[in-house]
Design brief:
The chain has twelve helices and 22 strands. With 480 residues, it is of the alpha+beta class. The longest helix is centred in the first third of the chain and has 19 residues.
Length: 480
């Protein structure tokens, strides 16, 4: 019997796998997709919020502040990029200015660094400020990262410490048995002592298979975004928020760690939890809202759009608790914004709940750091020359936009929690993130994946198992 089954390999599941791998016992992670970080973790604003915004007395408020404090150390340990670039919440009226005063009071009570700035002070840092903005709340502890980079690094480390990751394993039913739970997927059955349900927008449905009713409900809330290309001169220097509304933080302008700009998101409920398509209505809404906080948006630099669904719960707060009816079944649900910022603290809380009941022994020999990664783009000329001397594949540029070499892609495929899809390679090392969006490099990535995984190129997929890159051969080589 397995000790712990974690259902879902988003940012929360990856943190839990990493943190629990520090203890003796068998841990299995079940993920219905064919990679980690495929749901809300893949499609969000990539911000580590300061903790100023959530309502007092909520888990969101408590865990956001704690999570923000934890990220710097864990990113350093796992060699993930994390930057505290700061943020402004911008007011455009006297009424909104009053809201800023309330947010400052709330931030002060949580010891979140902040101060009020006048328009004149802000415009020195943000020349593209809208003419409507009259003041702003400065939040220096706000950070940015790539969510899937940290999720993959966490899972890689967890696997190195004995966690068993099983992909393409959609859980269809959970039953109570004498010593724990029987978890059934489409492919296998696993008996386990403890279950942690962190399955995103499907967490309510999953729990309902166990207790035969819905104790809580999850609604998919769609967010749509634009992505702008790198620019010689930064368009903005900090995360820019409007004053928040009842449904969320509003349409933001967000610099990324790779010097792109995110514009969005929308925030509206959708009936279909699988629907992650962009809509004209949603994108028009984003464009219309931007003029409130910025001007002269360089939409000629647009390189792509994307959308994702966040799990919004009926309790209006995170749901993190042991089931009252089913001991050792833990729901970690409704992890919407600020879920990314709160993730390390959420994991810390869940591990604490488990340790309150079970005497888990800490491992003596834990692997704390992952195998080093080479980022050729960041190397000096001398460093690049040394790399090429050791391995000529560092001289073969596969992605010209992001300067990614063949050697880096091969490494991403053969690491623990390695890439098996085109999008998996993109998440790990970046080919396809740039201006051409894979127009040049995707065929080369398919070739490398096929060769390294010993597969026919027609077996290589973009993302999920149904997203074939190649349909059929159009001609046959005489020697093949």
């Amino acid at each position: 019997m397995t000790d712990i089954v974690i259902i879902g390999a988003g940012i929360t599941g990856c943190f839990l796998a990493h943190d629990l791998s520090r203890y003796d016992g068998s841990i299995v992670v079940l993920e219905k997709e064919n990679d980690v970080a495929c749901g809300a973790t893949m499609a969000n604003s990539a911000i580590i919020h300061s903790g100023h915004d959530p309502k007092d007395g909520t888990l969101k408020a408590k865990l956001n502040v704690r999570g923000n404090q934890m990220y710097e150390e864990i990113c350093k340990e796992l060699d993930c990029t994390f930057m505290r670039i700061g943020a402004y919440v911008l007011a455009t009226s006297q009424e909104e200015n009053e809201t800023l005063l309330q947010l400052k009071k709330q931030a002060d009570s949580r010891q979140v660094p902040c101060c009020l700035h006048t328009r004149e002070e802000i415009i020195k840092k943000e020349p593209q400020l809208s003419d409507q903005v009259i003041s702003g709340l400065w939040l220096p502890s706000t950070g940015i990262l790539y969510p899937w980079e940290i999720a993959i690094a966490l899972m890689e480390n967890a696997i190195s410490n004995g966690v068993d990751l099983k992909l393409d394993e959609e859980v269809i039913k959970i039953e109570k048995i004498d010593q724990g739970y029987r978890v059934k997927t489409k492919n296998q059955t696993i008996d386990t002592k403890i279950v942690i349900n962190c399955s995103g927008v499907y967490a309510d449905d999953l729990y309902a298979t166990l207790i035969q009713r819905k104790d809580f409900s999850i609604t998919a809330r769609k967010g749509e975004y634009f992505v702008l290309d790198h620019m010689k001169k930064p368009y903005v220097n900090h995360v820019l928020y409007p004053v928040p509304s009842k449904i969320g933080k509003g349409v933001l302008v967000v610099p990324t760690i790779h010097d792109n700009i995110l514009l969005g998101p929308t925030s509206y409920e959708v009936d279909d939890k699988y629907a992650i398509n962009n809509t004209q209505k949603g994108l028009d809404f984003v464009r219309g809202q931007l003029s409130k906080i910025v001007k002269d948006v360089p939409m000629d630099k647009l390189i792509r759009t994307f959308a994702g669904n966040r799990p919004s719960g009926n309790t209006k707060d995170f749901i993190i608790e042991e089931s009252k009816e089913c001991p050792d079944f833990f729901n970690v649900a409704a992890i919407e914004s600020p879920g990314l910022a709160s993730a390390p603290a959420i994991s810390e809380m869940v591990v604490g709940l488990i340790l309150d009941k079970h005497a888990l022994n800490k491992k003596e020999n834990v692997i704390k750091v992952n195998r080093p990664k080479v980022r050729v783009k960041d190397c000096s000329i001398d460093e690049k020359n040394e790399l090429v001397k050791k391995d000529k594949r560092y001289a073969k540029m596969i992605c010209r936009c992001e300067q990614i070499t063949e050697a880096e892609i091969i490494d991403a495929i053969h690491r623990p929690c390695g890439a098996t899809t085109v999008k998996g390679v993109k998440k790990r090392v970046g080919p396809g993130l740039g201006r051409c969006q894979g127009g040049f490099c995707e065929p080369l990535v398919v070739e490398i994946l096929a060769r390294e995984l010993n597969k026919d190129p027609q077996e290589i997929v973009l993302d999920n198992l149904d997203s074939k890159m190649l349909v059929e051969r159009t001609k046959q080589n005489e020697n093949n």
